[in-house]
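Readers of this paper often ask what the protein records in our data store actually look like. The remainder of this section carries one protein's record, kept here as part of the documentation.

:::
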Amino acid sequence: MWRETAIFQGMGEVEVKAALRLLQSREREFVKGEILLRTGEITTEMGLVLEGSVTIESNDIWGNRTLLNIVGEGEFFGESYALLKDEPMLVDVRANGSCRVLFLKVGSLLQSCNAENVDAGTFKLLKNLLAVTAHKNLHLSVRSFHTAPKTVRGRIMAYLNMLSLKKRTGEFDIPFNRQQMADYLNLDRSALSKELGKMRDEGIIRFHKNHFIICTFRG
């Protein structure tokens, strides 16, 4: 599965094996709640989730927790920090359940490459890594649109609207449970649940657990 992920896109088997050696790949398993990368740490490795999922969280010194993202199978985390030399982590990466992760030492990739020694396989790897990083930065910037509205309903609608546009349908699953959805939208869980109930009663949406239907969707 992981050989078909974005960072190895367009690469043959020989090129992938060479890339894994170059990136000093290693696999690790984690249990629910275990910290993979911690705020303040320096890392030269990005992670590829092979099984399960991890959460990206901001935890401040006062104990406030903000859920920024959930990274699932086939997705990456930590790539920006790994590429920026000596840049401390500003987030925690935590196992959302039992998970298996492939770590890739991309931090040394740029340092070891120059115009004279970049072969075709390494060039593909660099190009794919740039695309992965750009997509992740876009995803993080999108969250600001979800938390910008001042009302609870506004944030819910902004988030569900994004998913409907991305999926091109008014029926989809969200990657969060209720507490995680509240954390992601920077809302109190009870306020979120209350507003979801109102929207359901008004015929705007229907939902069961993490499955949502936008009743007014116009594709």
